[in-house]
Amino acid sequence: MNKKNFIYFIGCFLLAIIAEVTLFTETIGISLSIFVVVFYVFYFYLTRKQTHTHRLIGIYIFVCIWLLTLSFVFIGNPYFYPLNLLVVFILIGFHTVLITSPAFLHWSNIDAFLYIQKKVSSFFKLGKYLTFLVRKSVKRRANERDYVAMKRILLGIVIVMPILIILIFLLSMSDQHFSTMVETIITWLVSFKVDEISTLIRIGFIFVFLLLLMKTISKKSIIIPKERKVKQGRWEQATLLTILLSINGLYIFYTVIQFQYFFNDVLINGFTYATYARRGFFELIIVTVINISIILLVNRFAKNRTLFLKIVLSSLIVFSFIILLSAHLRLSLYEQAYGYTYLRLFSHSFIIFLAVFFSFTLIKIWVEKLQLIRFFLLLSLLYYCGLNVMDIDRLIVSKNLQRFDETNLIDFSYIDALSYSTIPVLVDYYESNPEMKSVKHLLLAKKELLQQKKQKWQSYNIVEDRARKLLGKIDFDKKISENQNVKNNN
């Protein structure tokens, strides 16, 4: 084995051990950042002699990867963590393949995705080749007769295992003594160094996966871009203008109806708040599906994009903004009545997302060279990262406490279910209002949970650490006695 292959194998093996320690031993926190750093150091070392292409989009994706990775350290929102972990590794895979791909491939073009598909196919081919080498090595070391016998035994084990599991389950259901004996045997087998064995198996799988992954990424793949003829539009102006003018006429009528309560804070026609808000959300769906679809179809199939056609399309965008504003006002009214939650704040953020997308679409109508799909992909990734960077839990608590001061209405059970990032806001509120027993009980419960939780270094999170320190400094009994003395003196 030459020096290059030796470093390659040792690096993948060490990276597999680091992956086991950082990703599978404890709850993920700062450990993900450590793994990503080590992975990219090893990746850039292996590809140091290759030309790294697509630098601008590569930097953009790399920044997004680190925003999501650092969210495990600086943001205390466990609801995002499973999806963030999946998105991080998908982006890492896309990023590592993209920056070693040919420079002529446009990242948002179909050719780039065909190149990625080719890389995935190459990964599985390498897996088959590795399996073949292992089988060949085993076959060489054993004689032909022993090899065939071993192969048949393994096939029999694979076939009989699911049958045995089903039979054991059915027999255990029919006889309690047999069930107890089976549980005793399984417990003994599982307790026989199962942790060590499972760890070794997991490291082995990760090691093989990294071997195949790094070899696939570092190996050059040839792809010939397909020449695609630009298809001319087939829809006539008369047809398109009839459709667009009819839809715009409907939106004009709808807008006139909307303006009668655009600037009112009360409901009309006997609607409940729930009905009012749901109708606003359905408007949002209609705007997304119908209006965007119409604009994309017209841009794709129109024969001639005349000035009048562009004006009509632009007016459709304007009416879409009005509907978005209506949905925003309705949702705000609903929040004033029932409080702030994840779903309601996400709905607000989605309205902003659509407004930005409609704005770019409006520019696209007049500047045809712009690529809408590229902007949509970049905006979607930025939007998702933005949701992670925002401290949504803290915003929810701040808004609900502000509403509580105004209406004396709040759902403390919902606030209790939020993450530790809410602790600084709740502590500040409690210090100003120490007579609030609900806040006190909530903080005491959080303090007890943090005291019982044994945090390993892999799970370190700044938000959780800060919450632990803040709660440790508060003497709840002293706060209440001080408040009572102030009241007596007054």
UniProtKB/TrEMBL annotation:
Membrane as UniProt keyword: yes
Residues spanning the membrane: 7-24, 30-46, 58-80, 86-105, 153-173, 197-217, 238-261, 281-298, 307-329, 341-360, 372-390
InterPro entries, sorted: DUF4153 (IPR025291)
Keywords annotated in UniProt: Membrane, Transmembrane, Transmembrane helix
Name listed for the protein in its UniProt record: DUF4173 domain-containing protein
Upper taxonomic lineage: Bacteria, Bacillati, Bacillota, Bacilli, Bacillales
